[in-house]
Amino acid sequence: MSDTTSLCPRCAHETIEHIFSSPVPGVWEVLGCGRCLYMWRTSEPARRTRRDAYPEEFMMTPEDIDTAPEVPAVPPLVADYQVTGSAWTP
């Protein structure tokens, strides 16, 4: 990883995880932060990938993360429904 991806853009955590690489080698990578759970693709603009360009109003501190409300769980899929066209039908 280059110096621009050595810190999480959102929380400045120093441990960035490589999540996935593009099917075409070297085009992009998906990186993720284990502290704030932010994920980004390296091909995105600097305002999404670099700490020094990330919007200040969306930056997080360790205290912000520790006091954040719980993230709700994703509910289970409803097995009795199927997609037909653009609508759900029972």
Written overview of the protein:
This protein is α+β, with helices and mostly antiparallel strands and 90 residues long. 10% of the residues lie in helices and 22% in strands. The chain is built from two helices and five strands; from the N terminus they run E-E-E-H-H-E-E. The protein has helices at 46-49, 62-66, and strands at residues 16-21, 29-33, 39-41, 82-84, 87-89. The protein has a three-stranded antiparallel beta sheet with strand order 1-2-3, with no helix packed on it. It has a two-stranded antiparallel ribbon with strand order 4-5. It is extended, with a radius of gyration of 17 Å. The mean pLDDT is 86.
Largest sheet: 3 strands, antiparallel
SSE succession: EEEHHEE
Structural Rg = 17 Å
Strand content: 15-25%
Instruction: Describe the oligomeric state of these chains in a short phrase.
Output: single chain
The total strand number stands at 5
Mean pLDDT: 86
Would you identify the regions where 5 or more consecutive residues have pLDDT less than 50?
Answer: none
How many H/I helices?
2
Strand order of the largest sheet: 1-2-3
Structural class: alpha+beta
Shape: extended
Helix content, binned percent: 10-25%
Gap between N and C termini: 48 Å
Summarize the structure.
The radius of gyration is 17 Å and the shape is extended. A hairpin with a 2-residue loop joins strand 4 (82-84) and strand 5 (87-89).
List the helices and strands and how they pair.
Blueprint (H helix, E strand, L loop, with lengths): L15 E6 L7 E5 L5 E3 L4 H4 L12 H5 L15 E3 L2 E3 L1
Antiparallel strand pairs: 1-2, 2-3, 4-5
